[in-house]
Amino acid sequence: MLTPAEWGIVTLSLKVGGAAVLAALPLAFALAWVLARYRFPGRLLLDGLVHLPLVLPPVVTGWLLLLAFGPLGPAGRWLESWFGVSLMFRWTGAALAAAIMALPLMVRAMRLSIEAVDRRLEGAARTLGASSWHAFWTISLPLAFPGVLAALVLGFARSIGEFGATISFVSNIPGETRTLPLAIYSALQIPGSETMVTRLALFSVALSLGALLLSEWLVRRTPAGRQQHDD
Amino acid sequence: MTIDIDVAKRRGDRLIAARFTAGPGLTALFGPSGAGKTSLLDMVAGLLRPDRGHIRVSTRTLFGDGIDLPPEARRVGYVFQDGRLFPHRRVRANLLYGVKLAPPASRWMSLDEATSFLGIGHLLDRWPGSLSGGEAQRIAIGRALLAGPEILLMDEPLSSLDAARRGDIMTVIERIRDDLKLPILYVSHDRDEVDRLATKVIALDG
């Protein structure tokens, strides 16, 4: 169905998307937990910062990444001098851009599922001898887990579709940073490549729709999801 | 065995305060809704921190004199009004939750003993969501007993049950009081319940 070149684009996209959600997962969960469970000064600001990539023009996000992770940026210089690593024009940079763009969606999905966990169950676990850490691992996390999985799926789909921040941060290099949307964009510039555009676009639609359905199914498995849908 | 309680806590514009001692048997904390009875049990369990005072069980200080034991170190069993069974674990796993966490020396009941004591052997493979109110309350009682508590707190354990089930569970509570000889702090606003079950009544006013 797809040509070898197209398969290369697809596997690169899957690699970038997979790395992006795995990198974003711990940070997204920590942010979701803090936002769901704690009241503190600056909470609104943190909430705003987390959601910023959702409303900022993606090109601006890419440009900010360029400033931070470019050869002269603070994060870029630090990575270069300590690890000899540069994200510029590399697939890892594409994964970083995708992770930043997927973060708000992931935090939102996880936060809803964490908020839906009945905290009184943790109290019950404590009276049965569980430390707060043990209660987290055995009660809260398992109950929120379908939401965490849903966030992963949703974040993955968002990462695969990432365009603006990626192209401004790591450019559009075949085999390195040319993911599905960038490849479709490039093919659109070349006369006679309509069939490639069609095939890649259909593939994107199938992937995104599949991810949305999977994530919705997973959300319905949380207690909160069940309540919402049973009403 | 003496339970010695003297606590006060301000919640909003309400002051919850109580001072009493309770011996063996079932001590009923009796009073109207809103008198802070549940808050009092939460303080004994370690789920709510008193502003001042002390909570002692025999010679152990659970709270006061600079001590504030976390709930998991108190050995206080708690049967909640709404059961609070873990919805993602089968009945057996709910019952066993506290067993592995309790030091072996402090366990005084096995799963077999608990299931026959409560008549819940046939429920072990069920999910909490599929239980009736009376069944769920038996499991909640069994779960609390299996963690090896020194005292048991019960917060209106009959309030969600119909008349027939209330009688069943009251019989179970009497056997915990008389056969297991576990001291119980029992919250209720129902006069009949208190008359039948209580060895001692502490009146709390609103």
TrEMBL record, chain A:
Stored NCBIfam families: modB_ABC, PRK09421.1
Organism, scientific name: Sphingopyxis flava
GO molecular function (one): molybdate ion transmembrane transporter activity
Keyword Secreted part of the UniProt annotation: no
Full protein name: Molybdenum transport system permease
Keyword Transmembrane helix carried by entry: yes
ABC transmembrane type-1 domain mapped to chain residues: 10-215
Localization: Cell inner membrane; Cell membrane
Signal peptide: none
Bilayer-spanning residue ranges: 12-36, 48-69, 89-110, 135-157, 200-219
Entry membrane topology: Multi-pass membrane protein
Family that this chain belongs to: Belongs to the binding-protein-dependent transport system permease family. CysTW subfamily.
Known function: Part of the binding-protein-dependent transport system for molybdenum; probably responsible for the translocation of the substrate across the membrane.
Keywords: Cell inner membrane, Cell membrane, Membrane, Molybdenum, Transmembrane, Transmembrane helix, Transport
InterPro entries: MetI-like, MetI-like_sf, ModB_ABC
From TrEMBL, chain B:
Molecular function per GO: ATP binding; ATP hydrolysis activity
Family annotation (Pfam families): ABC_tran (PF00005)
Protein's UniProt keywords contain ATP-binding: yes
Domain of life: Bacteria
Keywords: ATP-binding, Nucleotide-binding
Residues annotated as domain ABC transporter: 2-206
The name this protein goes by in its record: Molybdate transport system ATP-binding protein
Organism: Sphingopyxis flava
Biological classification of the source: Bacteria, Pseudomonadati, Pseudomonadota, Alphaproteobacteria, Sphingomonadales
